[in-house]
Amino acid sequence: MKHNYSGGLCSRRKKNGKYSRLSILFFFQGILLFACGPFQDTRTDEQYDFCPPVFEELKVESDNILTLLFNEPASIPVSGVSFHPGLSLQGISLHENEVKVSVSGQVPGLEYSLTATCEDNNGNSLYFIAAFHGFNSQIPGILINEFTPRGSSSHPDLIELKVTENGNMGGVVCYQGTYHNWDNRLIFPAFEVKKGDFIILHCKPQGISEEIDETDGKDISGGLDVSPHAYDFWIKDGTGLSGNNGVLTIYESPGAGIIDGVLYSDRTSESDDKYGGFGTRKVMERALELAGSGGWEPERKQIQPGDGINPEDSTATRSLCRDKKGTDTNTKNDWHIVPTRKSSFGEENYEEVWK
Q: What mean pLDDT comes out for the span 51-78?
């Protein structure tokens, strides 16, 4: 098809019938301008995807199923998975953004690492490592039963747990804080406990060799405030509890369900208007997470410092205690402060109230 250009420089010819150089220049400029015009982009979103899947979480569903969560559908070849310590891989199945990994041989509470390579529908791959603890089907009933957040050099901060149902402690974790926000934690090894047993967590150890985690007997460890009637455990590099404002929690394992929790605070919403009255973002976020998980019941819709146990009158020997019955309404009403030198770690709580 021929195009006639009338008028202007493009219509001028030389006598021999050829276009002038200027005519040819304008002709090609027209072609270039036409070629650079906008075109409809028919590519799909997937054709723009150069990002690998994002690994979000590993859930230990049972003694033979692990669930891996991603931000998009992903696949994992059997050859791309390994465990340390070793586990027997039985198979892998895909369920949209979830990958189910079948295994056998988990030891309750033992820490494992999973190493794998996953790939999305466009071939973008991710190499990742995820830690988890062996599934425990015999989680005991446990309550936070007594604690001292205002310890001294001779009587450092302590937390006492009381076993309310028989079970195995493997993988159970106690946080100074919550699962998503904590300062110190202790993950228990596997050992059997019975209803009525006590476990003492030493929150600020001296770091001496006599401080031994007890699983086979209750009279093995040395150190400050050990009890021959309780299992003593020492939080490695523990810095102690906050004296005024804090959250303590116990979970079935890291990332699993909450077993018990406590909020304590000497603040009120009127005493401090920062971060809901808690004074710091850290404590506010922990209090919100505790309430959101059902571990503490606020009086109003939004949890406040006044919902917590007030530690103001507590000391290194005036501990915060539940009653002997183990009343558990997840409120401050379950708690009292005992008189001076009446803390009872490793034994039944003293019921007389300070003042």
A: 95
